[in-house]
Write a structure and sequence with these properties.
It is a single chain. The protein has three helices and four strands; from the N terminus they run βαββαβα. By secondary structure, the protein is of the alpha+beta class. It has a single domain, classed as 2-Layer Sandwich (Histidine-containing Protein, Chain: A), CATH 3.30.1340. A four-stranded antiparallel β-sheet has the order 1-4-2-3. It is globular and about 35 Å long. The mean pLDDT is 96.
Length: 89
């Protein structure tokens, strides 16, 4: 299992479009991927669960992946966070 702490750095937080990007990436990998924020845990394959995290800009998120190809999944999802999900700042 791999874990990484990330910061939501896009201005609108984990809204529908950002959450959909996470789901799209997580769904390509056979490992289990989840995010935890504000004491809540969500599957990275569920757009609704991700949005219910209510992770606004500046929120710290714990990303976890466990299973085959976990390192690649972590890298790609971390890249989404680091790029601000392609949104202007």
């Amino acid at each position: 299992m791999q874990m990484q702490e990330l910061t939501v750095n896009n201005p609108r937080g984990l809204h529908a479009r950002a959450s959909a990007q996470i789901v799209e990436v997580a769904s390509r990998f056979p490992c289990a991927v989840s995010l935890t924020a504000k004491g809540r845990r969500a599957s990275a394959r569920s757009i609704v669960a991700l949005m219910l995290l209510s992770a606004s800009a500046g929120t710290l998120v714990q990303l976890e992946a466990d299973g085959p190809e976990e390192a690649a999944a972590m890298r790609e999802i971390a890249s989404l966070f680091n790029s601000g999900f392609g949104e202007r700042r």
